[in-house]
Amino acid sequence: NTRYFYESFASVDDLLGAAHDQAHERLTITLIERSEGLATQDELIREGIQTVLEFVRDDPRRAAILFTEGQSNPTLVARRRAAVGELASLARMTAGPQAEEVAPMFAGAMSELVIAWTRGELSGTAREVADRAAGRIGRLFD
């Protein structure tokens, strides 16, 4: 019913933005919780990849809002850019001065990895894909 929709959102873009923000916040919280106690960069990367893959596996709509549609919808593109900025801030803690280049490369690699995995183009469980991808992505930080 449009009445109820417009009582909550001014436009479809507002709805998309709210959906993105909610998914991004949940993913961020999950990533923080699952990274506690991990000591090495390799462990953090592997756990991060697995967490993202499991997050979108558990609700495929999250993949669309955070990754697929986030590449073409102007509202989601802006939010994705902000998320990459957050990633750059986090990357500076481990990657140092090259974080400015590493963060967008990592974000792009993760997006393509998530998209390919959710489409069934990559075989294996979230853990198996994370294990294979972690070493390759880890080299970005070396």
Notable features of this structure?
142 residues; mainly alpha; 82% helix
Blueprint of the fold:
Layout: H1 2-8, H2 12-35, H3 41-58, H4 60-68, H5 74-95, H6 99-118, H7 126-141
Fraction of residues in helices? over 70%
Largest sheet: none
Which residues form runs of ≥5 with pLDDT under 50? Answer: none
> Quick check: average pLDDT?
86
| Strand residues, percent | under 5%
Task: Report the structural category.
Answer: mainly alpha
Shape: globular
Give an overview of the whole structure:
The protein has seven helices and no strands. It has about 140 residues and is mostly helical. Helix 3 runs parallel beside helix 6, helix 3 crosses helix 7 and helix 4 packs across helix 6.
A few lines on this structure:
The protein is an all-alpha fold and 142 residues long.
